[in-house]
């Protein structure tokens, strides 16, 4: 009996560790609050962050990234995209993506796959290939099934699942389909092809469409809801909607919770996948205070809806944020500053969970 109990204890301790719940020794952040632990306490699956391969040599950064009570999930910001994984037709390169997947595994963190099909970071052999519809659908099929199949079961401790942004940014803000090589060549057929390929490659993976400007109600959200209904009626697998949530300080859309609920009412889950809240620099105490409120508002909305399953920051520190590179004069979008110190936004997240 004693032996059995001690075995059970070891098993429970192990399960706890790999689920990112255990109190594994980890470096302390400046606040004692740990975001993944709080999110789990509130019934979420995870609180996570994007990261990128070049950042992993920064030891003070990785000390926070590797803390599985702060971050229970990671997304590769670049290294699983098409240009990184199939730079020429049929030649798959997973080394950089594997670094991120292995890091998640080593840390006991969930993995989000990002992404199978996107008009950006797409190699020219796809964009300039002048493929027929049949050819391009076969290319999409091969890419998605090989990519999703490669990461099948890679991080499978708690939920036996990885989530995949199978389709990224396929719509314009007015709710029409983005005019890219996929739409121009196949119409909307590539959508079902990608989703079906992903499902066949990893039947346990949660399959998402991921986009920005669908956090509040509007034409784009409505168009995605209609697309979900169509896919469901055609038997095409779709499990979730990723709301990227790249916001501007003081300019959050109203009714985020209501919009999350409009999606979950269709039977899909929602994840906040790329959260950041940028400002025009320099940052001021007033801007930081508004940013704190904005982070709190987003977290409150997700926290209020059980099927909003988790939140991912689009990297946690201003040191590595994509914002200054994309929007001249803007930045300071993350909850940690360039010196890896927590900002008021960090407290906004904690308060948003009601912790
Ligand atoms: O964070 C990514 C950045 O390093 C790349 O230069 C950029 C290129 O398009 O993509 C960024 O990530 C994007 C994500 O893949 C999709 N949603 C918008 C993100 C920010 O641009």
Structural class: alpha/beta
What is the count of DSSP helices, taking H or I runs of 4+ residues? 14
What sort of overall outline do the alpha carbons produce when their principal axes are compared?
A: globular
**What CATH architecture do you see?**
Alpha-Beta Barrel
Q: Give the averaged pLDDT, no decimals.
A: 92
Kindly estimate the percentage of residues that lie in beta strands according to DSSP. 15-25%
Number of strands: 10
Rg over CA atoms: 20 Å
Describe, in plain words, how this protein is organized in 3D:
With about 350 residues, this protein is of the alpha/beta class. It has a single domain, classed as TIM Barrel (Alpha-Beta Barrel). About 40% of the residues lie in helices and about 15% in strands. It has 14 helices and ten strands. It has helices at about 1-20, 35-40, 60-65, 80-85, 95-105, 125, 135-150, 180-185, 190-200, 220-235, 255-265, 285-305, 325, 345-350, and strands at about 45-50, 75, 110-115, 165-170, 205-210, 240-245, 245-250, 270-280, 310-315, 330. An eight-stranded parallel beta barrel has the order 1-2-3-4-5-6-8-9, surrounded by six helices. β8, α12 (about 285-305) and β9 form a beta-alpha-beta unit. α7 (about 135-150) packs parallel to α9 (about 190-200), α11 (about 255-265) packs parallel to α12 and α12 runs parallel beside α14 (about 345-350). It is globular. Residues about 1-30 have low confidence and may be disordered. Bound molecules: ligand 9MR. Ligand 9MR binds next to loops.
């Amino acid at each position: 009996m004693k032996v059995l109990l001690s075995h059970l204890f070891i098993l429970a301790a192990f399960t706890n560790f790999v689920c990112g719940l255990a109190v594994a020794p980890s470096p302390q952040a400046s606040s004692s609050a740990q975001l993944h632990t709080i999110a789990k306490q509130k019934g979420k699956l995870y609180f996570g962050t994007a990261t990128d391969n070049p950042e992993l040599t920064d030891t003070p950064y990785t000390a926070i990234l590797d803390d599985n009570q702060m971050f229970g999930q990671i997304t590769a910001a670049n290294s699983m995209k098409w240009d990184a994984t199939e730079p020429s037709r049929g030649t798959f390169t997973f080394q950089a993506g594997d670094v991120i997947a292995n890091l998640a595994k080593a840390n006991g963190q969930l993995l989000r796959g990002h992404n199978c099909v996107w008009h950006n970071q797409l190699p020219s052999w796809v964009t300039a290939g002048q493929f027929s519809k049949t050819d391009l659908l076969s290319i999409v099929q091969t890419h998605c099934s090989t990519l999703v199949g490669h990461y099948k079961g890679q991080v499978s401790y708690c939920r036996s699942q990885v989530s995949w942004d199978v389709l990224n940014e396929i719509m314009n803000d007015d709710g029409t389909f983005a005019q890219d090589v996929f739409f121009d060549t196949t119409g909307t057929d590539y959508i079902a092809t990608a989703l079906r390929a992903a499902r066949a490659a990893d039947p346990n993976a949660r399959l998402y469409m991921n986009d920005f400007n669908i956090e509040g109600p509007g034409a784009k959200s409505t168009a995605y809801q209609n697309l979900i209904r169509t896919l469901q009626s055609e038997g095409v697998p779709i499990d979730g909607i990723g709301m990227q949530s790249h916001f501007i300080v003081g300019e959050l859309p109203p009714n985020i919770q209501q919009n999350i609920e409009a999606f979950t009412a269709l039977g899909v889950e929602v994840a906040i996948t790329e959260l950041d809240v940028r400002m025009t620099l320099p940052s001021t105490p007033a801007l930081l205070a508004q940013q704190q409120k904005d982070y709190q508002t987003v977290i409150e909305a997700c926290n209020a809806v059980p099927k909003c399953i988790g939140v991912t920051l689009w990297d946690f520190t201003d040191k590595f944020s994509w914002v200054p590179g994309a929007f001249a004069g803007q930045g300071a979008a993350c909850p940690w500053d360039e010196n890896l110190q927590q900002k008021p936004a960090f407290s906004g997240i904690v308060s948003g969970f009601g912790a």
